[in-house]
Amino acid sequence: MTRILLTGSGMVASALASEAHRRGHNVQALPHSEVDMRDLPLLRRRVTEFRPDWIVHTAALTKVDYCQENPREAVEVNTAATKTIVDLAQQLMARVLYFSTDYVFDGSQHLWYESSPTQPLNIYGASKLEGEIIVRKFFRGHVIRTSGVFGERLDGKTERNFFRAIASRYLETEGPISVVNDQHTAVSYAPHLANMTLQLMLEQQFPKIVHLTSKGFESWYGWAKLALESACLDSDRLVPVSCEKVSFRTPRPRNSRLTSEIPEVISLIALHPARQAVEQYFGKVLNELHEEAGIRE
User: Where are any strands of DSSP class E within 3-91?
Assistant: First the structure.
């Protein structure tokens, strides 16, 4: 039985905690409600008390515009706390797994592999890349880059992701829904990430950097269209627009199709198709939103 400490309580941490418990591991979660990543003394105490074999570091400040406007806080949470995690792992002889992002890339290539050159366009991506560098220098440190995460949270809070946003807009409005069609990415169902991550953690030779997503690429418009059509809803309400017309406050990579050059990872991803996960999750969210609104179909 492996002792796994999870930082954070979002979609990835929730799925990892559930799957790790199911597999019989000893899991300790450090949700934000208990440990603020900027409270380094408390973070040190809680990690040391548990003495984990693995520290899986999912906690992060991920709101791109907020990071751009609050760079100091972004660095404190995404970089400085990561340095503390690595220092503690070194003292405790633990391994570190750090979840990073497609936003470490500038979007200028068609596909992004583990060995592709990094060049973030914004503070969020830069702060996560600095965290990557810290983890990669640690000989028991590993990085998973992922993108477009969706799935449930287990802490009682409502998750924040693209597909829930599309479902909410569809039900709460009657007009057109604008979605960018020139920003392409892979999406990642959190239970898929949890299953693949724990599978890799069993391997003796865990790669230093891994790209993990559910299988499939689309524009955000394409993903929205797939979700609506899977629920037999009117996808004609979707209006494809360019990034220029949306006028993002913070620059984002146009193309962040994460893929892998590692054979075992390619095989894992092939077993986790995005389409079925989107259909399953989107249907669940629609049912929840109908119930919240007092609508019975």
Answer: 3-7, 26-30, 54-57
Task: Give the integer Cα–Cα distance in Å for 87 and 134.
Answer: 10
- The amino acid at residue 9 is S
Backbone angles phi, psi at 140, to 5 degrees: -110, 25
Tabulate helix, strand, coil % of the chain (nearest 5).
Answer: 45, 20, 35
Q: What tokens were used for 36? A: 């603020």
Instruction: Give the separation between CA 74 and CA 164, rounded to whole angstroms.
Output: 25
Domain-wise residue ranges, the chain: 3-150+188-214
**In sequence order, what are the residues at sequence separation of 6 or more whose Cβ sits closer than 8 angstroms to the Cβ of residue 270?**
215
Tokens of 105: 């890339």
**CATH fold group of domain 3-150+188-214:** Rossmann fold (3.40.50)
Which amino acid does the sequence have at 245?
K
Look at the block and give the residue holding tokens 């724990």: 198
Among all chains, which residue has been given the structure tokens 């198709």?
273
Contact 89, 96 (CB under 8 A): yes
pLDDT, tens digit, for every residue of 6-55? 999 899 999 999 999 999 999 999 888 888 888 888 988 999 999 999 99
Q: What are phi and psi of 210, to 5 degrees?
A: -135, 140
Name the nearest CA neighbour of 140 among 212, 86, 196.
Answer: 86
Which among 122, 131, 158 has a CA at the least distance from the CA of 284? 158
The pair phi, psi for residue 26, each rounded to 5°, is -90, 110
CA 137 to the chain's CA centroid: 22
Tell the burial category of 294 from Cβ atoms under 10 Å away from its Cβ (0-12, 13-18, 19+): exposed
Residue holding tokens 């892998």? 260
pLDDT tens digits for range 188-247: 999 999 999 999 988 777 899 999 999 999 999 999 999 999 999 999 999 999 888 877
Q: How far apart are CA 78 and CA 68, in angstroms?
A: 13
